[in-house]
Amino acid sequence: MTALAMPEPSRETLGRRSEIAADLRKIVPGEGVIVDDVEMRAYESDGLTAYRQTPLVVVLPETVDQVSRVLAYCYENDVKVVPRGAGTSLSGGALPLADAVLLSMTKFNRILEIDFEDRIVRAQPGVTNLGVTRAVEANGFYYAPDPSSQIACSIGGNVAENAGGVHCLKYGLTTNNVLGLEVVLITGEVMRIGGRHLDSGGYDLLAFMVGSEGLLAVVTEVTVRILKAPETARALLIGFPSSEAAGSCVAEIIAAGIIPAGMEMMDKTAILAAEDFVHAGYPRDCEALLIVELDGPAVEVDHLLEKVEHHARANGASHIRVSQSEEERARFWAGRKAAFPAVGRVSPDYYCMDGTIPRKMLPQVLHRMGELSQTYGLGVANVFHAGDGNLHPLILYDANKPGELERAEEFGGEILKLCVEVGGCLTGEHGVGVEKRDLMPAMFTEDDLKQQQRVKCAFDEKHLLNPGKVFPTLHRCAELGRMHIHRGALPFPDIPRF
User: How far is CA 391 from CA 205, 270, 382, 433, 472, in A?
Assistant: First the structure.
């Protein structure tokens, strides 16, 4: 494990571990509280496995009342809490703390309501992403955000990280598909935000919660919108002689006003790994591959297929193949969705990055990543959501070789800083967590970060929820409340103060 500065554990809390566990068992009886060190190993990390920490105690509540009482107890006794969904986060967002209760929401795994007339599903946060679609697909509906981990990741975790997926170019991220939440504040208060309707008056608190990475509240219920499956959906495999040519084609397609349901890109390393793993029919003799899916009425799809083919040929495409059946379309996507595990077969370890750039900068960024690969002496496989500029470079390394993990992290940091330099941002869907925490000043000023922390203080003034994540320097709420005095003068001196 590499060195990572986390909040210093409270010796007082560590000394009360047995007492805290006994108190929590009164709230969550039976097997709902885990204190055995061996049993807690299953919770010591999330998908960012380079960092591990055994929690103080693990609690698995089954009801909203239990969640409320656990959080109220922790608030009253100044005990930190780390919320956890399925643990598939790739940014260390669910990394435990030695002096914190790890609150696992996996037992909240029921779908509460399906309403096809209103086109909504109410689900508990432990329901898997794919589980929502499976529950409604027999009636011709589906849930649009579909991250590659959709078979395992939970809908509550999707809310925490604002997860995306291959179809988010046209249908949006989690934030565009969540209508309402039930959350529990650190004080134990239960609050409902939004609902089964499209929008609500007042402050947009829903936007605060989606993507808040467990720093503001614990999600206990999610209301999502479901969509009717399109009349027709067809996908193209388009091979290119270079990643730069593929990137130029992406930019041209969007500039032409075509918004595919999904547009994904893979470089040669990822193409060969996925083809060997899934046998999706990918061409092996190209340097980059685009998967472009178009959906809607059949006439519209046929028209757009012709336009996309035109742009592909104009950018030197060496291979174009259009799916001729639903099975073939699904096979095209199966290779892309299995790309991450497939790359795991060709490298002992890989470090999955997540950054976003303007689409027009794809060729420049891909070229620069190639140069960085040479500089750091580490391979990189590119698999990403090309249509919305969300990059997922997989940096290849061997953790058993001294210094390679550190080089991989430095390489990843350079990629993320490059994203910001060209007008992008540090994350598209994986969140900040601990992975990008210390890079936040590359994108935000100190005033920006303080303003974000003021939102944190409004919900969690004691900083008990998921501390050590997102913010590189955490200020006390009292410090953030102080007014800045410049040259002895308060701002807006004409405003009455009390």
Answer: 28, 13, 8, 17, 23
From residue 404, alpha-carbon distances to 31, 83, 398, 400 in Å are: 41, 31, 6, 8
Q: How far apart are the first and last CA of the chain?
A: 51
Predicted confidence band at 482 (pLDDT cuts at 50, 70, 90)? low
Distance from C-alpha of 12 to C-alpha of 218, rounded to nearest angstrom: 25
Euclidean distance between CA atoms 398 and 402, whole angstroms: 9
Q: The tokens 């290779």 sit on which residue?
A: 335
Most confident stretch, 6-10, 196-200, 486-490: 6-10
Q: 187-201 in b/e burial notation, b at 16+ Cβ within 10 A?
A: bbebeebbbeeeeee
Q: Which distant-in-sequence residues (6+ apart) come within 8 Å of 31 by Cβ?
A: 60
Q: Check: CATH 3.30.43.10 for 11-104?
A: yes
Q: What are the tokens at 60?
A: 């698995």
pLDDT confidence of residue 483: 45
Tokens (6 digits) for 128:
């898997």
User: Contact at 8 Å (CB) between 427 and 356?
Assistant: yes
Residue 477, CA atoms < 13 Å, CB-side half-sphere: 11
pLDDT given for residue 489 in this prediction: 57
- Class of residue 416 by CB neighbours under 10 A (exposed 0-12, middle 13-18, buried 19+): buried
Q: Judge contact between 266 and 386, C-beta under 8 A.
A: no
Domain ranges of the chain: 11-104, 111-228, 232-421, 437-473
CATH code matching the domain that covers 232-421, chosen among 3.40.50.150, 3.40.462.40, 3.20.20.30, 1.10.510.40: 3.40.462.40
Give tens-digit pLDDT for 422-458: 999 999 899 999 999 999 999 999 999 999 999 999 9
pLDDT in tens, 244-275: 899 889 989 999 999 999 999 999 999 999 99
| CATH number, span 111-228 | 3.30.465.10
Pairing assessment for the beta strands 232-240 and 288-296 based on DSSP bridges: antiparallel
What amino acid occupies position 86? A
Yes or no: say if 336 and 270 are a contact pair by the CB < 8 Å rule: no
Q: Burial, 462: exposed, middle or buried (Cβ in 10 Å; 0-12, 13-18, 19+)?
A: middle
378: how many CB neighbours lie within 10 A of its CB?
21
Contacts of 392 (CB under 8 A, 6+ apart): 352, 353, 354, 382, 383, 384, 385
Nearest Cα neighbor of 305 from 215, 373, 234 is 234
Asked if 249 contacts 359 with a C-beta cutoff of 8 angstroms, the reply is no
